[in-house]
Specification:
- This protein has about 110 residues and is mostly helical.
- Helix content is about 80%, strand content about 0%.
- The chain contains five helices and no strands.
- Helix 1 packs antiparallel against helix 2 and helix 2 crosses helix 3.
């Protein structure tokens, strides 16, 4: 779940950067980094529960986020070619973006609190 949010935030950051909105792009990139740190901590905890020693956890997170990011990137391109909008009008992306823009609330839901 954290990887998904990180990937989505990175794609939004890239869109904003291409539109010359440096501050917004920076904010979304920072949020993506936050989710990647949460993902790394989650991976380490999972490994610990399985009795595995964590190695190169952030490398694994980057690889996983990259895979998901490609899926989002393609969806955004498809949306733009169909509707002239990257996110607006795509109910699933709109919902995911709203969910991922509140990391503290997202973390509470993810942890079952």
């Amino acid at each position: 779940m954290y990887n998904r949010c990180a990937a989505l935030q990175l794609n939004v950051s890239a869109l904003l950067a291409r539109k010359g909105q440096a501050k917004g792009a920076s904010d979304f990139e920072a949020l993506a980094q936050h989710y990647m740190v949460l993902s790394e901590a989650n991976e380490r905890e999972t490994d610990k529960k399985r009795g595995l020693k964590s190695k190169d956890t952030m490398k694994t997170v980057h690889r996983n986020v990259g895979v998901v990011s490609e899926v989002y990137s393609q969806r955004l391109k498809d949306n733009f070619s169909k509707r002239g909008e990257y996110i607006v009008g795509d109910a699933q992306l709109e919902s995911e973006l709203a969910e991922c823009n509140l990391p503290d609330d997202f973390k509470k839901r993810a942890m079952g609190n």
